[in-house]
Amino acid sequence: MKNMLGSLLAGVVMASVSCFACAQNAANVGAPGVATSSDPREQARAMAARAAAWLRTQQDAGGGWSIPTNGPVYPAISGLALAGLVNEPGASAKDDAIRRAVGFIVKYQQPDGGIYDKVMPSYNTSICAAALAKVDSPDAREATKRAIEFLKQIQYGEAAVSSAGGPEAAEAVGPDHPFYGGWGYGNRGRPDVSNTHFALEALHEAGVPESDPAFRRAVAFLQRMQMIETTPDGTKVNDQAYAKGSKQGGFIYATAVNKDSVGQGQSFAGEIVESQSGPPGCEAVFMLDKSVKDGLTREDANTRLEAAAKNNAGLAGGFMVVMGATGDGRTSREITVRAPMTDEEKFRAAIAGAFADVLGEKPSLSVRRIEAWRGVSRLRAYGTVSYAGFKSYLYASLSRNDPRVLAVKEWVSRNYTLDENPGMGTDGLYYYFNVFAPALEANGEEMLRVIAADGTAIRRNWRADLVTRLATLQDADGSFRSVDDRWLEDNKVLITAYALRALQHAGR
Q1: In this structure, which of 72, 173, 374, 440 has its CB flanked by the most CB atoms within 10 Å?
Q2: 77-113 pLDDT, tens digit each
Q3: Dihedral of CA 275/380/231/10: which sign?
Q4: What is the mean pLDDT of residues 126-134?
Q5: CA gap 461, 447 in Å, rounded
Q6: What CATH number matches the domain at 271-379, 3.40.50, 3.30.70, 1.20.5, 1.10.3470?
Q7: How far is CA 337 from CA 5, 149, 246, 347, 417, in A?
Q8: Is residue 236 a contact partner of residue 223, using CB atoms and an 8 Å limit?
Q9: Could you tell me if 297 and 452 are in contact, meaning their C-beta atoms sit under 8 angstroms apart?
Q10: The dihedral of CA 228, 181, 253, 416: what is its sign?
Q11: Helices marked H in 186-251 — which ranges?
Q12: How many CB atoms lie within 10 A of CB 290?
C-alpha cells in the first residue's frame, strides 16, 4: 500500500500544511477551475460549476451515467451525478438533465422499494434516495418515500425484514449483537461504516427526524466502529474486544470481515501500535515482492522470526508483528516487525534474512530506531471511514461537544491531510474528499485545529486547503483526473461527482 510506512501520520501533517501554503497562490492565479477571488467559497463554487457542466456532457440518451454494456447497472453513479446537478445554484426539477436522470433512476426501483439492479441494494438505494430527496417532483417524492422505507427494512436490528434486499439481507438482531444498527452491501453478510453513512445521509436528506429509531440503532453500530474504548471523561464507547484499551478515536470499517467472523473487526488500513512500552529498539517495515501472489499471515511472519531468533540474540529478546493493509483480515503484503535490537544494520540484516524469499532482489525495507519496542497491535482507524463516522454522528444529532464526537475530532486534528486518504495512501482518495467536506461543514467550524508534527496546535482553513488540493486535479474541461484505480476511482464520472460534492459543501 502506498505511503503507509510508519505507524502514524504526524509527518504527513506538516508536509500537507507546507504543500497547501506553497500552492495557495498558484491556485488563485489561474489553476483550472479556480476563480480569481481569494474567497475559498467562491473558488469552490466556480470549480463546482465547471465540474457540473462536464457531467452534463457525459449523460447518455437514457438519462444515466456510466452505464455498462453488460450489466449489472449501478444506479448509484447516476445518483451521485444527479446529486451534483440538483445542488447547483438555480437547479430545478424542470431542467432536462435532472428530469431525465430522475426517470432513469426511478426505472430501477424494485417492488420492494429499493433502487438497484441485482446487486448492492443498500449502496445504490441510499445514494439514489439522497439525490431524489432534493428533486421537487411527484415521481422523485414517491420514489424517495418507498426507498426510505426499504432502507429501514434492511438495517440490522429488531425491525429487519429478512426477505428484503437479497439472499444475504440484514437479519433481525438485538442491541448486543455487533451488527446491530448497521447497513451493508448485501453480499458479505455483515454491515459496514460506508454503507451505514450513505443510508443515514439518505434519511437525513429525506427529512427523517433524528428521533427515528433508525438513527438510534445506527449510533450503536457507529460506536462499535470507533477505535476508543472509553473517552477521557469515562464515557464508555466501544464494547468490542478489538477496541479494548484503544485511544485512537477514529473509525474502522466493520465489526467483521464476513458473517462468519463476528466481532473480529476489519480495517482496510491494517493495524497500528498503541500502548507503547519497554526499552528502545528498532522497527522494520517492508513490502512483499510483486512476484509473491499472496500476502503473509501473522502466523507466517511469527514462524519465520522464531526460526531466525535461534541464531540471533537480538530477536531472541522478543519481537512483535504488526500487519499492514489487508483485504481479508488475515493476510497482508506490508509487514512491520518491532524488536529490542538497537543496531539498525544488524536488525536490517536479521529481517532481510528471515524474509529473504519474499522480499525480492531490491527489497522495500525501511528500518528506524524507536523509543519503546513493545506495544499493542490494534486495528487502525483511517480517513474515509473516520470522516464518515464523524458526519454520521452529527447527522444523528449528537452534540458537537459529545465525548464521542470530540474523540473523532481529535483523531482528525492529528491526521489532517489532503495529500492522501490517511492510512490508505491514494486508495479511495476522491471518496475521501467526498466525506471530508460534508463532515467538516456539518461540524460548523471555519478554522480547524490541527496538531503539527512537533506537537504544536495550528489552525487550518479546511475550505481553502480542499480548493487548493482539488485545483491540482481538475482538468481544463472541468473533469477530474484519476490518481488510483481502487474502488472504481479510474471512472472519471464517479470521481468528478465525488469532487463536485466536496466542492459544493466547501462553497456553502
Answers
A1: 440
A2: 999 999 999 999 999 999 999 999 999 999 999 999 9
A3: positive
A4: 98
A5: 5
A6: 3.30.70
A7: 12, 49, 20, 10, 26
A8: no
A9: no
A10: negative
A11: 193-205, 213-225
A12: 9
For 456, other C-beta atoms within 10 Å of its C-beta total 8
SS3 assignment for 14-38: HHHHHHHHHHHHHHHCCCCCCCCCC
Q: Cβ(151)–Cβ(203) under 8 Å? A: yes
Q: What are phi and psi of 227, to 5 degrees?
A: -85, 70
Q: Give the other-Cβ count within 10 Å of 192's Cβ.
A: 25
Q: Distances from the Cα of 315 to the Cαs of 255, 283, 359, in angstroms?
A: 34, 12, 19
Terminal Cα-to-Cα distance of the chain (whole angstroms): 34
Write out the three cell numbers for 3. 505511503
Give the DSSP H or E segment for 247: strand 247-251
Please answer whether residues 424 and 417 qualify as being in contact, where contact means their C-beta atoms are separated by less than 8 angstroms.
Answer: no
How many CA atoms, within 13 angstroms, populate the side-chain half-sphere of residue 374? Answer: 5
pTM (predicted TM-score): 0.91
- Rounded to the nearest 5°, which phi and psi values hold at 125? -65, -45
Nearest to 116 by CA among 165, 50, 159, 157: 165
* The residue type at 300: D
DSSP state of 279: S
Helix, coil or strand: residue 185: coil
What digits encode the pLDDT tens for the residues 280-311? 999 999 999 988 888 999 999 999 999 999 98
DSSP 318-348: --EEEE---SSSSEESEEEEEES---HHHHH
Closest CA to 118 of 108, 127, 129: 108
